[in-house]
Specification:
The chain has about 280 residues and is α/β, with parallel strands linked by helices. It has 2 domains: about 5-175, HUPs (Rossmann fold, 3-Layer(aba) Sandwich), CATH 3.40.50; about 190-279, 2-Layer Sandwich (Pantoate--beta-alanine Ligase, Chain: A,domain 2). Helix content is about 35%, strand content about 20%. It has helices at about 10-20, 35-50, 75-85, 95-100, 125-140, 155-165, 195-200, 205-215, 220-235; strands at about 5, 25-30, 50-55, 90, 145-150, 170-175, 240-245, 260-270, 270-279. Strands 1-4-3-2-5-6 form a 6-stranded parallel sheet, with helices on both faces. A 3-stranded antiparallel sheet has the order 7-8-9, with helices on one face. Helix 8 packs antiparallel against helix 9. The radius of gyration is 19 Å and the shape is globular.
Amino acid sequence: MAITTVYSVKSLRHALANWCRAGERIALVPTMGALHEGHLALARLGREHADRVVASIFVNPTQFGPNEDLAKYPRTFDDDRDKLEGFADLIFAPDLEEMYPPGAATTISLVGPAAAGLEDRFRPTHFQGVATVVAKLLIQALPDVAVFGEKDFQQLKVVTRMVRDLHLPVRILGAPTVREDDGLALSSRNRYLSAAERASAPVLFQALQGCADAIRAGAEPAQAAANATARLAEAGFAVDYLECRNAETLEPPGSGDEPLRVLAAARLGGTRLIDNVPV
């Protein structure tokens, strides 16, 4: 039997109510479509923690800035539905008016270190859009768990903080980044890369690994990050940021023993790539 797709909140809640009455746990995997193996890994992790997996497919306009790639963001619903067969039990694919009814005026504003710095310096409205749509999805589905990828590490921390602050009854799970054999993190935007850019793209992961290795060997995080930034520039990247942060709070590192993460965003041609590695 083909996977079921619902398009309204009412239909979503009707399907979920039947599972809840049967005592089944539900995992939500929010996506914007253009699915790849990384998304399927999220669904697999959801299945480990729940009886039913719901995948949402919605290209959320509020997380795109005015000069970003909303218009050209890949929309591949038929292919996405085929890929989700065997991985999810239900697809929730609302249209714009279902998610943002006419006159909708409520948004989630974020403060604190998780949302301060890094991405918001270059995409100032991005996390407001992310938090708002994720809050809507969590309220619409009321899952037991929701799964997000560590590739978007700052997003994962923002969502975790929001859920904690708003006392939403859901556990947020982070799934490890899935990579190509050469280390490039899987992303729906990788399809924008030319052949030459694709050949250069793994340098981002290599630079992050080198930065993390240097910090573990005793280098000052700021100097290690500066060296990695220079390496990316030499490889043709335009670097938005490459920084070491506390892995839990995303605050700049202190002087004590603390878990660290190196995060970066850089443009290669017209494509913006993000990645991160633990130290």
